[in-house]
Amino acid sequence: MSVDANGFVYVADTGNNRIQKFDANGTFISKWNSPNPTGVTVDQFGVVCVAGSGSIRTFDTLGTFIRQWVSIGCRGIATDGEGNVYATDTANDQIKKFTPNGVFITGWGAFGDGDGELNVPGGIAVDGNGTVFVTDAFNNRIQAFSSFSPVPAPFAGFTANVTTGYAPLTVRFNDTSTGDPTSWLWQFGDGTTSGEQHPVKTFMTNGTYTVSLTAGNVGGTNTTVKENYIMVHLRCDFNRNNRIDIGDVAKVAWMAAGLIPQDPEADFDGKGTVDGADAARIAYFYVGKIQAL
């Protein structure tokens, strides 16, 4: 429930999926639809802000829709003297702050029962000094915050679907960062970078590559570095000295002649056996007649 500067009362009628407006004596004035509203507030400019169904919606005092933005888990809602919007995010145990136009400014809070931690935050109010008061439901308390409480920086982390193989090696990287990052900077150890959250990178040449991820949000950045994370081998570099030498050429020839056991690594044409064509191919590569195995 909220009261505007003219004394009109606005009620979030959750079960009926609507907002109702009354005068100061309780006389019904008007109503309008808003799905599953869980909180309503009116700022000093006459903008009615409604939380519910994973979104924040704004209306004028006649119920005319203005705009909407997504805020998953929002329940309670409040505004400050500048029209900024504050919402309790019960899904993530956080408080989120937006501009009047719905642009995210900052957020704070995390699950727990310590100072500044929350467990199902519900109601919220902002006083004239900008202090934010929150009902911390499952911790049975009220907490007060500065409206400028910082959002913590994320903690960067990642995995890869493969970390070793033959060149060219295609690797799918998976961002596992926590703390709601909004930006990503990958460095793959070969001078290339990516700003995608889950990039796919092809390593064209053999070598060992150190990969890093810097994850960021409005609270700052955090970097995780994995030394020598990706190992790319040259196919048929049997002694792993990062080049094809005469010894590797000889081994494939011996395989084709049946003098030593065959290695599928030398089956370049994929016929299921190492034969003369494979021996010729690596020999041509060794002398520079072809550029790829």
TrEMBL record:
The keyword Repeat applies. Gene3D superfamilies: Dockerin domain, Immunoglobulins, TolB, C-terminal domain. The keyword Repeat applies. InterPro entries: 6-blade_b-propeller_TolB-like (IPR011042), Dockerin_dom_sf (IPR036439), Ig-like_fold (IPR013783), NHL_repeat (IPR001258), PKD/Chitinase_dom (IPR022409), PKD_dom (IPR000601), PKD_dom_sf (IPR035986), TRIM-NHL_E3_ligases (IPR050952). CDD domains: PKD. It comes from the Archaea. Residues 154-232 form the PKD domain. One of its GO terms (molecular function) is zinc ion binding. SUPFAM superfamilies: NHL repeat (SSF101898), PKD domain (SSF49299). This is PKD domain-containing protein. Pfam families: NHL, PKD_4. Keywords: Repeat. Signal peptide: none annotated.
